[in-house]
Amino acid sequence: MVVTLGCGDACPVRPGRRYLDWELPDLAGLDIQSARAVRDALTARIDVLVRELLPDRTPIG
Q1: Are 20 and 1 in contact (CB under 8 A)?
Q2: Where do the structural domains in the chain lie, given as residue ranges?
Q3: pTM, whole model, 2 decimals?
């Protein structure tokens, strides 16, 4: 499993791997409230991915 953050076709691809490209805003220049919103969105996506990959486990956090 390879998760990239908005690099799309610019990222190298290794055959036989599953890829997810999560487009999220760059944190550079964001105010703290916006940066926290990005953090929370990333946490939510990770939790969904963990439940998908490990359905018998509870996410940490």
Answers
A1: yes
A2: 25-61
A3: 0.74
Cβ-in-10-Å burial (0-12, 13-18, 19+) of 12 comes to exposed
Q: What is the arithmetic mean of pLDDT over 20-38?
A: 93
29: left (phi over 0), alpha (psi -120 to 50) or beta: left
Q: Where are the alpha helices (DSSP H) in 1-61?
A: 32-53
How far is 21 from 23, CA to CA, in rounded Å? 6
DSSP one-letter code for 2 = E
DSSP 5: S
Bridge partners for 19 per DSSP = 2
The one-letter amino acid code at 24 reads: L
- Amino acid, res. 2: V
